[in-house]
């Protein structure tokens, strides 16, 4: 192998490595950027904190109007019961959050634009207290 082609191999390897790092870095920061917005899958508030749950209850029975479809106590109405342990999409925090942010096809409105992410997580915390299964 000539010196020139050796250099080419090293340069190409270096280039590929750099590209990989750039792609990796973008994937990472892309995830973090999404995480800072309404798409976060981690709650910025303590889901079992009494203040969080109180705030979530106020949103559920007030401003966000969840009660209109799910009932004041979450027992259901136009929307399904949130107080039993049966879930259509899932009762874990990340799934409930996803339901709130993007809505669900059979009549669950999207709240991603109507509330802050912190408020949505507070609502998640409250919804989780309605049912026996977390
Ligand atoms: C306009 C009526 C309506 C409003 C307002 C509403 N929902 Fe819903 N919700 C629904 C319907 C209908 C479904 C079932 C959607 C489906 O099956 O695709 C649903 C589904 C859900 C689910 C998924 C339940 C499961 O079993 O996986 C959750 C959680 C939920 N709503 C919480 C809320 C919260 C919290 C609010 C207030 C921020 C809210 N909803 C406001 C009608 C509503």
Give an account of the 3D structure.
With 134 residues, this protein is mostly helical. It has two domains: 1-33; 40-130, Cytochrome Bc1 Complex, Chain D, domain 2. 54% of the residues lie in helices and 0% in strands. The protein contains five helices and no strands. It has helices at 3-36, 50-60, 67-70, 93-102, 117-130. α2 packs across α5 (117-130) and α4 packs across α5. The model is unreliable at 15-37 (pLDDT under 50). It binds heme C. Residues 60, 64-66, 68-70, 78-80, 82, 87-90, 96, 99-100, 104-109, 111, 123, 127 line the site of heme C.
From the structure above, extract its key features:
134 residues; mainly alpha; Cytochrome Bc1 Complex, Chain D, domain 2; 2 domains; 5 helices; elongated; binds heme C
| Portion of residues within helices | 40-55%
Kindly report the oligomeric state of this protein: single chain
Strand fraction: under 5%
The CATH class of the largest domain: Mainly Alpha
Distance between the termini: 64 Å
Bound molecules: heme C
Q: Uncertain segments of ≥5 residues (pLDDT<50)?
A: 15-37
Using the CA coordinates, give the radius of gyration: 22 Å
Query: What is the average per-residue confidence, as pLDDT, rounded to a whole number?
Result: 82
Query: Can you write the helix and strand succession as a string?
Result: HHHHH
Based on DSSP secondary structure assignment, what is the total number of beta strands? Answer: 0
Helix and strand composition category: mainly alpha
What is the count of structural domains?
2
CATH A-level architecture of the largest domain: Orthogonal Bundle
Tell me, briefly, the overall form: elongated
* Number of H- or I-type helical stretches: 5
- In this structure, how is the largest beta sheet organized? none
Q: What would the CATH topology of the largest domain be?
A: Cytochrome Bc1 Complex, Chain D, domain 2
């Amino acid at each position: 192998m000539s010196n020139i082609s050796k250099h080419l191999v090293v340069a190409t390897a270096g280039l590929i490595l750099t590209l990989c790092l750039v792609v990796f870095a973008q994937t990472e920061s892309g995830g973090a950027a999404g995480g800072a917005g309404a798409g976060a899958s981690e709650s910025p508030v303590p889901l079992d904190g009494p203040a969080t749950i109180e705030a979530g209850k106020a949103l559920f029975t007030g401003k966000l109007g969840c009660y209109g479809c799910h009932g004041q106590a979450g027992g259901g109405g136009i929307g399904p019961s949130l107080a039993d342990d049966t879930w259509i999409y899932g009762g874990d925090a990340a799934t409930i959050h996803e339901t709130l942010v993007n809505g669900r096809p059979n009549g669950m409105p999207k709240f991603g634009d109507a509330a802050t992410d912190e408020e949505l997580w507070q609502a998640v915390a409250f919804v989780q207290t309605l049912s026996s299964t977390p």
